[in-house]
Amino acid sequence: MIRLLIADNHPIVRKGLELLFSSSSNIEVVASLDDGQAILNYVKNNPVDIILTEIDLPKLNGLTVLRHLKNEFPNIKTIIFSGQPEEVYAINSLKAGASGYIPKTINIITINEAILKVNDGGTYLSEEINKQLKLGKRVSKSGSYYKKLSTREAEVLKLLCIGKKNKEVAKELNVNEKTISTYKARLMRKLKVTNLVDLVNQAKLVESQSSI
After folding, report:
1. d(CA 115, CA 24)
2. Which end of the chain, N or C, is less packed with Cβ atoms under 10 Å?
3. CA-to-CA distance for 100 and 80, rounded, in angstroms?
């Protein structure tokens, strides 16, 4: 039996996933959580095989959680199940330690298939992203902006986009505030902007274009 932990900040999504797997013969939902820190607290004391989680989580975002899991709980596999654009975040999620990325527009059969594939040691990405990887490029122009970003830069950008200040980002990522300033400067250079407002607006524009 695959022990599955679900994490999402929307109660209706968590409840829907719980119902989806309630009659499963090979997947058992062992916990349903609503923030990133709760994931780390749970796995410290309870056995989990796979985590199915959103990127946008309170307290610790999904990319930060992935980094902690990769370092502290390498045997636990994680699948990102997100409403965020796959074009933008799928590859950085894998770089951070995820074993798969499922957009929330996917059908329920695919969710089950992805969990089984990851449990068997595979990696799950959509056919579109796999095709782009094989071609060695991003099909969407908007995705090309994010191709230049490291996983940590994408992590910092995500936190800035939800309104967190440098000090708050530094605290969540457990680094000093000067380091965040350095990352912000890199992001501005790579995304070709000169201030924080334009940086956030550029990121949101790219995300909206990727979701069309």
Report:
1. 12
2. C
3. 6
Torsion over CA: 156, 207, 67, 164 (sign): positive
Question: Which ranges of the chain does DSSP label H, i.e. alpha helix?
Answer: 11-21, 36-45, 62-72, 86-96, 108-119, 127-135, 141-147, 151-161, 166-173, 177-190, 196-210
Note whether 189 and 183 are within 8 A (CB).
no
Query: What does the pLDDT look like over 28-75, one tens digit per residue?
Result: 999 999 999 999 999 999 999 999 999 989 888 888 899 899 899 999
Q: Rounded to whole angstroms, how far apart are CA atoms 152 and 183?
A: 8
Query: Which among 20, 59, 44, 48 is positioned nearest to 164, based on CA atoms?
Result: 59
- Which pTM was predicted? 0.70
Whole-angstrom distance, CA of residue 157 vs CA of residue 55: 13
- The rounded distance, in Å, linking the Cα atoms of 135 and 137 is 6
Write down the residue that tokens 């985590």 correspond to. 51
Residue 90: its pLDDT value, please?
82
Positive or negative: CA dihedral 189, 125, 73, 27: positive
Least confident window among 61-75, 87-101, 138-152: 138-152
